[in-house]
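Deliverable D5.2: sample structural annotation.
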Amino acid sequence: MGDFRNFLKKITHPFLKKGLTYYYRKPRPYTYKSITVTVHPDVFPPQLTLSTKILLDFMTSLPLKTKTFLELGCGSGIVALYARQKGAIVTASDINVTALEYLKTASEKNNLDIHCINSNLFEAFSKKAFNYIFINPPYYPKTPENTKQKAWFCGSNFEYFEALFKQLPPYLGKENKTYMILSEDCAIENIKTIALKYHVHLELIHKEKKVGEENYIYSIQSNSPNT
């Protein structure tokens, strides 16, 4: 099964298979329940990955009505829009300006108002508290060469996670629930070690296997006495 999963990774990862250039030559739609977004070629593609659908399904049972919700690194923004459809007060952030422009259009077309912020992680935030934070991070250890690749690659020394866990603790209060999805194909123990350096703990709360790949959703809490 491991060989089969490696084969799937090669044919679905846009930086490992040149043949997908044709597929990504133009914007493509993605629909979950009654919400449709248009995904630009320079934006993380929920059509050909597992993590977005797993997160969306996980959200169905969450009590989001009237709760404040942040999708950090929103990409297509389908998670943010679904949270809004469930009644949350939603903020979506991304470093990719193109992603946010397309999300704003999708927000209008789906009649789901959300607040969009262009930000590298929490750099453009003002320590506002959120009831929920959802993170679908880049986790391949390679240095990204452009904004598009930042959706896939966390840096050769896991720089994304260093920055994330350094900035995250002030947002991990008692009224907050933060969730992050990871795959068995990423260096989970390395990521956990980085988190602990910043007094952040990852607790596995859901795992799901699709097309031979195990995916994990972690709840993130702060171990810092100041939080």
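Annotation notes: DSSP finds six helices and nine strands in the chain. The chain has a mean pLDDT of 90.
The annotation will be released with the project's public dataset once the embargo ends.
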